[in-house]
Write a structure and sequence with these properties.
19% strand, single chain, alpha+beta, 5 strands, 3 helices
Length: 108
C-alpha cells in the first residue's frame, strides 16, 4: 500500500478496521478501547498483550487467550505500525493511535 507524504496510507482499508472493531465489541462486551503492545509484563520475551477498557476508563478483566487473540488481530490489521510502542484501538471510531499520543491529547 502506498503512503502519502503525511505517512497516511493512500487508500486506507477502513472497512477492515470497522469489521475488526465490530468483532472485538462482540467478543468483549462493554469494551471501548484496546491498548496493544508486545510487552506482556508476565512474559520474559515479547508477546502480544492487550488491556481493554470500557467507556468510563475502567479496565475489563480478560482471559489470557482472549487478550492475546485481540492483540494479534489488531497487530495484523496494522502491520506497518511501530509496535515498539503501545497503541490504542478505539472501537467506536475504528482508529489506532500510539498510546503516548492518546495520553498527551487528553492533557490539553
Amino acid at each position: 500500500m502506498l503512503a502519502m507524504p503525511s505517512g497516511t496510507p493512500a487508500c486506507p482499508d477502513t472497512d477492515r478496521q470497522r469489521r475488526l472493531a465490530a468483532q472485538l465489541a462482540d467478543m468483549i462486551p462493554g469494551a471501548a478501547t484496546v491498548r496493544v503492545s508486545l510487552n506482556d509484563p508476565k512474559e520474559a520475551w515479547p508477546h502480544p498483550h492487550a488491556i481493554v477498557k470500557d467507556a468510563a476508563g475502567k479496565t475489563l478483566e480478560l482471559g489470557r487467550t482472549t487478550a492475546r487473540v485481540a492483540a494479534r488481530w489488531i497487530l495484523r490489521v496494522w502491520p506497518e505500525a511501530d509496535w515498539t510502542r503501545p497503541h490504542t484501538f478505539d472501537l467506536a471510531e475504528a482508529t489506532l493511535t500510539r498510546s503516548d499520543l492518546v495520553a498527551a491529547g487528553r492533557g490539553r
